[in-house]
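Q: What structure does this chain adopt?
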Amino acid sequence: MYRFLVLLTLFFFPIGTYAAPAPASFSAAHSLLIASSSVGNVYATGVSVVLTAPVTSDFCAIGGSIISAAPIAGDGLLIAGSISSRAPIAGDLRAVGGSIEVQKPVAGDLVALGVSVDDESHVGGSVLVGAVKVAVMDGASGPVTIYGNDISLSGNFADDVTIFSSGHLTVATGTIIHGKLSYEAPTLATISASAQTLGGVEYTNAAYLPNPHTSQALTFVSIGVFLLVRILGALILAGLLAGLFPKLAEAITERVYVGRARGVLLTLLLGFAAFVATPVLLLVLLLTFVGIGVALLLFVAYALLAVLAFVYSGILLGSVLARQVSDRAEVLWRDGVIGMLALSLLALIPFVGLFIVFFVSMFSAGALLLLFFSFAFPSERSHTDLVS
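A:
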């Protein structure tokens, strides 16, 4: 269990963290087809993502459905409801999804978390899988650890195999395990007479009624998955908004550098007032029958402002970091991703982190309100004049 928790944290680190800097391409669309090769890492997101061109480095994709049908020279990081890897991967493969299918060899390690995992490939490194239904059909060269309910094994395994099953384990005909087969399950496994376990078999009967230690571990995993999903969602949204609307992000960032200290303070106070005064106004409007409709519209606008303020606070932090490091005023999509990642990590710090997030969000809310006002009423004084 603890090995599973440690390896699960690998998903918090971006792919290629320790690799040498390389060119990268980013694509986003509802239905995305990547049919041309490009040098460096490839990042893609969409409802449907299909890769048909070879990738010379790492491939990272997030979407509803992902099909990888071309060789990947580096590592693969795939997060989707349905994942199908149909071409060889020269590095590691990390996949999170509902249904995960791996058809071709993975030269490195395989880490998969999902509802159903079907691995028909031979894995050159270690294997870590967590799913309700798991099938590893062609063995692995490294150690194998599987958490699941219905688990099936076949092929040639060069190292130890460790199984934690809440249901049943099946070892198919012709399976060879050169190391030791250790498994925990409520019932004895179905092991074919022709299967070979050269290192022996160790069975532990487990009813899987959670004890205090297991409950704590499950709570930790649940919190970790929730934080992972929240951070990934914020990263995607920040990257998309920064990439699609760079001028708006640049306008918000300019308020930090162009405005005087008094202007920055007034922008911050405007955002604070909007967040504090709006709930009070909503309560007042709800007391009257006529004001209910207005209150509903105002609540939608308030919720939208809160979401945009938080996302653009990450983009603001990333663009400020980009200016300090590379002296670049232009806002790129990766500035939003890096800034949101930094902001999400700051939010994990008790008290101080939440204060920083609140402070930056208030400034972003004030800047957004001023920009929207100047856009809606162009004949009025510019937002720079309003706070200078």
